[in-house]
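Fold it.
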Amino acid sequence: MNQVLFDVSEGIATITLNRPERLNAWTGVMATELRTAMEAAEANPEVRVIILTGAGRGFCAGADMNDLTSISAAGGTETRAFTPLDPAATADYQHPQTWLPTVGKPIIAAVNGPAAGMGLALILFCDLRFAADTAAFVTAFSRRGLIAEHGTSWMLTRLTGHSRALDLLLSSRRVGADEAYRIGLADRVVPADQLMAETRAYARELAEKVSPRSMRVMKKQLWDGLLQSLGDAMVDADREMADSLKTSDFKEGVAHFVEKRAPRFTSV
């Protein structure tokens, strides 16, 4: 891979968008390589948490302007075939920009700089968003004559509320890290030079102390829950709880607490 870097250590897969000279502007090649990296992280039993970040001073500045210029000159865009990561997942998460929730492992976006347009859409479908205090968030679409694409209208509303989502989409104004935290777009803000250290520390705690099976099931519960009634969510929870009580991780969860030692979870 050339436009995405992939590294695994301490139970954490770090995926880095790697076009720093273009603020990691999004391309078709990057989309393909990101999918390849996520599949590798999902398939690796040693990986329990995934961090997604950008190389250099940006996270992702949105679609590469050269691509947008070509699309504009051609009067439209081509439709690319997309194969779902998990064909058994609900259809809502089987689209080119909404498939990240079907990755069973938690994905933490470490937003190290500007996240605009496609870059913003990408972090919306991650599970958590840790931001450097120098990060910036921009929807960008309205200033390109576009609309709220890639599922941003649906997901942004759920994170920030209806009117704030409209504000961000209509104005395409630049939102700093502190405001992003205040309105629910970022989950944590840290000094830029400590972003990866703090993100890795959190990820390492999950990797070392939490059942990977529990994380996988709970992630699915929360994403599915956005599309369910309370009654359907309760039915699913009751079934999953019954299954959990039969697992080795449940036995280990009780044993390590009683024995006052570090856990040794094995289920995936």
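DSSP finds ten helices and nine strands in the chain.
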